[in-house]
Amino acid sequence: MMINNLIEFLSSYGKLSDRSVEILLNHNIIKHYKKNDVLLAEGQYATECYFVLKGCLRSYYLTDDEEKTTAFFIENEAITPVSYATNKPSKYFISCLEDAIVTIGNKTTTKSILSKYPEINQLFININEEQLASSRESLDSYINLSPENRFKKLVDERPDLIQRVPQYHLASYLGIKPQSLSRIKKRIIKNT
To answer: What is the percent of the chain where pLDDT is above 70?
Structure first.
């Protein structure tokens, strides 16, 4: 059952009682999306956060009619749009690169659960801390590494994306043109 992925993910951040598992199962909504569906568009107010059970999603900005990919999300990853936390219009899009199944949370349900069940509250704090650290690390890598080293790091840390994500999206994520990514790949293959 797909929802077990969510329970396993949350349990990796701390112990969940049987009662907490039951509460989470009763409050989470599972939704199916098709490839290219947009979960959040620029200018919209995010009213939901997500947990990917199946599929691959990405976030991106539109700058001068060009898409700039900022992140990829795959199975067992949480997505909390900035707009969800700030109550401001989103500055970016979140869309599906593959058919996807996600659980959806909203502020009302989340606040209710967190106020009643402190152990779940602590799990959310732990998850948010890890997401913040991961975002910071990604930004630091982007600033401090060359495009070739960013690509090598991506291959080392998230090799699944190389097979699942079109090259032009990977290039955008790395901050380079697809032709440059092709040259980097050839150089790496030649040197191995």
So the answer is: 97
Closest CA to 45 of 79, 82, 108, 87: 87
Q: Rounded to whole angstroms, how far apart are CA atoms 51 and 101?
A: 9
| Structural domains of the chain sorted by starting position, each given as residue range(s) with its CATH number in brackets | 3-116 (2.60.120.10)
Q: Are 138 and 175 in contact (CB under 8 A)?
A: no
One-letter amino acid at 90 equals S
What six digits make up the tokens of 124? 């959310």
Structure confidence at residue 12 (pLDDT): 80
Instruction: Report yes or no: 164 and 98 within 8 Å, Cβ to Cβ.
Output: yes
Confidence at residue 7, expressed as pLDDT on a 0 to 100 scale: 78
Angle, alpha carbons 145-143-78 (nearest 5°): 100
Q: Is the dihedral of CA 144, 146, 150, 155 positive or negative?
A: negative
At residue 76, φ and ψ (nearest 5 deg) are 65, 30
CA distance 136 to 173: 15
Phi, psi of 62 (to 5 degrees): -105, 115
pLDDT at 17: 79
The residue to which tokens 């790949």 are assigned: 185
Report the Cα 117 to chain-centroid distance in Å: 25
- In 10 A of CB 148, how many CB atoms? 17
SS3 145: coil
